Amino acid sequence: MDTSSHTLKENIEKAKAGNQMAFSALLDRFWNEVYGFQLSRTKNENDAEDITIQTFSRAFDKIHSYDASYEFKTWLFTISKNIHIDMVRKRKKNVWEQHHTGNQEVIKKVLDNAPSAEDQLIKEQNLASLLGHIRNLKPHYREVINLRYFQELTYAAIAEELNEPINNVKVKLLRAKKLLAEMIKAK
C-alpha cells in the first residue's frame, strides 16, 4: 500500500472521529478536483465554488456514511453532482414559477416595493438576533464572518488579510456558518 493511500485512510478515520485537522487535510487534498469537476459542469466560477463548499460541508456532515469500498473522491464527486442537480432543478422551478405567475405578480411587486413598518421592525430584530449570535462565536470565526459577509471580501482577499491559506479561510467560514446555524436552531 502506498503512503498516500494509507494517509488518506488515516485522515478519513480521524475525520470520522471528529478531528478537524483531518477535515482540513481532506479538503486540501480534494478541493481542486471537486472545484474543477464543478467548473466543467457549471461553466461559472461562483457556482462551482459554492457547490464545492456545499460538497465538503455535506461530506463532513455525512462522513460516517462513507463506505470505504468506494473511492473517497468518487463519493465526493457523487455528492457534488447531486448538489448541482438540486441547484439546477431549483433554478428551473423558479424560472417556471416566474413565467407562469403572469403580469399580476409583477404589478404587485412594483406597487409594493417598499417594506412596511412591520417588515422593517422584523428585519431589524432578525439582524440584531443574528449579530448577537455572531458575537457568541470564537473571535477567529467572528472575524471571518465579518470579512466575508459584512465587508464582502473575496476568499482570496480574506486569506491575504488574515495571512492564511485560502483553504483555511474556506474551512473557517464553513465551520462558522455551521455553528451559527446550530445556535439559531437551538434558539
Characterise this structure.
- The chain is mainly alpha-helical and 187 residues long.
- The chain folds into 2 domains: 110 residues, Orthogonal Bundle (Rna Polymerase Sigma Factor, Chain: A); 74 residues, Arc Repressor Mutant, subunit A, CATH 1.10.10.
- The protein is globular, with a radius of gyration of 20 Å.
- α1 packs across α2 and α2 crosses α4.
- The termini are far apart.
- The chain contains 9 helices and no strands.
Topology:
Layout: H1 3-16, H2 20-42, H3 45-61, H4 72-100, H5 102-111, H6 117-135, H7 139-150, H8 155-162, H9 166-186
- Gyration radius, rounded: 20 Å
CATH topology of the largest domain: Rna Polymerase Sigma Factor, Chain: A
Mean pLDDT: 82
What proportion of the residues form beta strands (DSSP E)? under 5%
Poorly predicted regions are none
Instruction: Please tally the helical runs, counting DSSP H or I stretches of 4 or more residues.
Output: 9
Shape: globular
Structural category: mainly alpha
Give the termini separation: 48 Å
| Number of beta-strand segments | 0
| Main sheet overview | none
Could you give me the name of the CATH homologous superfamily of the largest domain? RNA polymerase sigma factor, region 2, helix turn helix motif
Question: Can you name the CATH architecture of the largest domain?
Answer: Orthogonal Bundle
Amount of helix: over 70%
CATH level 1 name of the largest domain: Mainly Alpha
Number of domains: 2
Question: What's the order of the H and E elements?
Answer: HHHHHHHHH
